[in-house]
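Ticket #4471: complex job returned nothing on first submit. Input attached below:
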Amino acid sequence: MAAIVLAAAAAYTVSTASAAEPTSLAAACWPGGIARAQSAELKPVKGPRTFDLAIPQQSLAPARAIPAAWRGQAIRRVELPKGLKLVALTFDLCESPAEIAGYDGPIFDYLRTNGVKATFFSGGKWLVSHAERSRQIIAEPLFETASHGWAHRNVRQLSSAELDREILGPQRAYEALRGTLGKAQCAIQQPAAFNALPQRIGLFRFPFGACSSTALQRVHDAGLLSIQWDVSTGDPDPHQSAQAIARAIVTQTRPGSIVLMHANGRGHNTAAALPLAIPKLKALGYTFVTVSELIAAGTPVLTPTCYDSRPGDTDKYDRLFPIVGVRSEPRHDFRTTIQR
Ligand SMILES: [Zn+2]
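Support reply: We reran it on our side without changes. The output follows.
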């Protein structure tokens, strides 16, 4: 464990020559500190089709090869060496067509203030519509940036071209944002810190947690690991209280768990749940790591299908969020279902 933490910290350490010198790109580029939560950013805003942003024109860095034994399968959790108590908190940043989703500032503020690592599965469209916040997340050593599809479409119903758009769109958005970050004076002055930022996103979470064997293969062709979860907090349900979310986190987490939450304004009581759950997990001896660090520390538990709590349970989204052609709009009815 110590080796993992030290390696990650070292990657972002620029220099110890001067005590005044920033130690991370986030500190260098936002020297006054990252702007804290603003209430206007929290709630998703519905709007016209002009909210449907274009995928950035961006050529991509070469994709890494996914291990043959992992191809065609999704990772639900990680089996760890005995005694190693690591857990990965994950937050989805879903953004559907015809909306600008929220930025749940109190969640980011709490994690930063308390030095808690986390992974953000971001829609590509969310990355573009929240460009400054996205650059802050990318530059933050505590956070890993991962993909949640371009516009939260059910990949089981997409054509081949649309599937590629959904999978590669966030990659283009990430690399474009990384590129603009790299042109900033703060990054030019901190080349080691900038170069430590991953060139590509390495992880993908399917919108709604729903996939097909074709989609799994395409994700792996794109050099991405498919990440599900084994702890579902139910946080998109407005009726799920902070206490209930915290209880789900604390009682269901075991070493190697991946915890699903939302930070796009639809994790209604998530921010209030974190101060309830995280100190308890710390007291139980858990260390918080990113999903990539968790995978590097053990052996992924793989399944050939994607699901929430049991195989087949995300197939319902074929009916609840039907996609008819490219420009259709998913329905959002949180009285009858939960958008994951
Ligand atoms: Zn989602």
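The radius of gyration is 19 Å. Closing as resolved unless it happens again.
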